[in-house]
C-alpha cells in the first residue's frame, strides 16, 4: 500500500499466488500456528456485530464514493459472485445469469412477497420485480446503496412493487413467501449465525423458500485475514459449512439443496481487476495512489484465495416443509429458460441515470 514494493516481473497477483501455493505445501511453524489459533479464539469479540456496529462496518466499505464501484462492476452493479454458464461468458451476462439462477431456485411466482436481505444497489430486487413479478422488500445498511436502489426503482416504474429500506435484518417484521440473501452473510459474524437463521425462520412463510448465497471455506473454520479485517471488511468472516449447518438445523429449517460454486468468484474477481486496471487513473483521482494500491491488492488477493487458498461460494436452499421444493432439480433449468424468454421481451435493467 505504501508503494515500497516494486514488481519487476509479473504483478502482485502472481506474487500472492506463489506465496499461497508454497504455504499450502508446507507446515506452518509453531508461532504461526499459535497466532492463528489465538485469532480464531478472538472471533467472537472481533465479530460482535450488534446493530450499531454492523451499520458502521457496512459504511466502511459500501459507503465509499459510488463512482468507485462503477469503475469495475457490471452495468447492474452486482457486487457478488457471478455465474459463468460458459468459460468465455462476459461479466455482464454472467451476472445476469446469477440473478436468473437464484430466481429459478427461489421458485418465485407472480405476487409473491420477497425479502432481499442485503439488497446492495437493488439489482436482484429489481430483477425479481420485473421478470418474476414479485413484490420485493430490499434492506441494506448502506446509505449510498439505498439512494441508488430507490432511484433505480423509480426510474424503472417499479417503485410500487419493489421497495428498499435502511434496515437491519433483525428489525424486519411480517411474513414472506420467499427470502434471499446474496453476499451479506459474510458480514453477519459467527456469534450471530443462530440469530440470523432464527430470524429467517420467523419471517419465512410455512410454504416458503429461502436461498442463501455466501462465500465459504472448503476447509475447517478459521479466522479473518487481519489485513482484510482492518482495511476492507471490518467485522467480516468467511464461514465453513460446518459452522452454518448446525445453526440452520437448530432454527428448524430444512436444507433442500446445496450448490458449490468453485471458480466462479475467481473469474468474477479477475474481470473486476481487469476493469479496475483499465480505469485506475480515475480511482486515483477519486482517492489517491495508496488507495488504488490497496484496492488492487484486495482484488488480487481475493481472486487468488479462490484459486489457491480453499475459498468457494455456496448456495443453500432452505424450506420449512420437506415437500416444498420439487423432487428433482429439473425445475431450475426449466425456470431459467422461462426467465430468459421474459428477459428477451423487455428492455434490460440499467443503473439510474444511464
Biggest sheet record: 7 strands, mixed
CATH class category label:
Alpha Beta
Backbone structural class: alpha/beta
At CATH level 2, the architecture is 3-Layer(aba) Sandwich
Instruction: Write down the CATH topology.
Output: Rossmann fold
Sheet with the most strands: spatial strand order: 3-2-1-4-5-7-6
| Number of DSSP strand runs | 7
Specify the number of helices. Answer: 15
Oligomer: single chain
Which parts are unreliable, with pLDDT below 50 for 5 consecutive residues or more? none
Describe the structure concisely.
This protein is α/β, with parallel strands linked by helices and 354 residues long.
List key phrases describing it:
354 residues; alpha/beta; Rossmann fold; 15 helices
Amino acid at each position: 500500500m505504501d508503494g515500497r514494493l516494486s514488481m519487476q516481473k509479473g504483478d502482485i497477483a502472481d506474487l500472492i499466488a506463489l506465496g499461497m501455493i508454497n504455504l499450502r505445501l508446507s507446515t506452518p511453524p509453531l508461532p504461526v500456528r499459535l497466532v492463528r489459533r489465538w485469532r480464531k479464539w478472538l472471533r467472537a469479540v472481533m465479530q460482535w456485530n450488534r446493530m450499531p456496529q454492523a451499520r458502521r462496518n457496512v459504511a466502511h466499505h459500501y459507503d465509499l464514493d459510488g463512482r468507485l464501484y462503477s469503475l469495475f462492476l457490471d452495468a447492474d452493479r452486482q457486487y457478488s459472485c457471478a455465474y459463468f454458464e460458459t468459460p468465455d461468458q462476459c461479466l455482464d451476462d454472467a451476472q445476469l445469469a446469477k440473478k436468473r439462477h437464484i430466481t429459478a431456485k427461489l421458485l418465485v411466482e407472480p405476487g409473491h412477497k420477497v425479502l432481499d436481505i442485503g439488497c446492495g444497489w437493488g439489482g436482484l430486487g429489481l430483477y425479481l420485480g420485473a421478470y418474476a413479478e414479485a413484490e420485493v422488500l430490499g434492506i441494506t445498511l448502506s446509505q449510498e446503496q439505498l439512494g441508488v436502489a430507490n432511484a433505480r426503482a423509480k426510474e424503472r416504474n417499479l417503485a410500487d412493487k419493489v421497495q428498499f429500506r435502511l434496515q437491519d435484518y433483525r428489525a424486519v417484521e411480517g411474513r414472506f413467501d420467499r427470502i434471499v440473501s446474496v453476499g451479506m452473510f459474510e458480514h453477519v459474524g459467527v456469534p450471530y449465525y443462530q440469530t440470523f437463521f432464527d430470524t429467517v425462520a420467523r419471517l419465512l412463510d410455512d410454504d416458503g423458500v429461502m436461498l442463501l448465497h455466501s462465500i465459504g471455506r472448503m476447509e475447517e473454520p478459521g479466522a479473518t485475514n487481519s489485513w482484510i479485517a482492518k482495511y476492507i471488511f471490518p467485522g467480516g468472516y468467511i464461514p465453513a459449512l460446518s459452522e452454518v449447518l448446525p445453526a440452520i438445523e437448530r432454527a428448524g429449517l430444512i436444507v433442500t439443496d446445496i450448490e458449490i460454486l468453485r471458480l466462479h468468484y475467481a473469474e468474477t474477481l479477475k474481470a473486476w481487476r481487469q476493469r479496475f486496471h483499465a480505469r485506475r487513473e480515475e480511482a486515483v483521482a477519486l482517492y489517491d495512489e495508496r488507495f488504488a494500491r490497496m484496492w488492487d491488492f484486495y482484488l488480487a488477493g481475493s481472486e487468488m484465495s479462490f484459486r489457491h487458498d480453499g475459498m468457494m461460494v455456496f448456495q443453500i436452499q432452505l424450506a420449512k416443509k420437506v415437500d416444498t421444493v420439487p423432487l428433482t432439480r429439473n425445475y431450475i433449468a426449466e425456470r431459467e429458460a422461462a426467465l430468459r424468454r421474459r428477459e428477451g421481451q423487455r428492455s434490460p435493467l440499467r443503473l439510474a441515470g444511464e
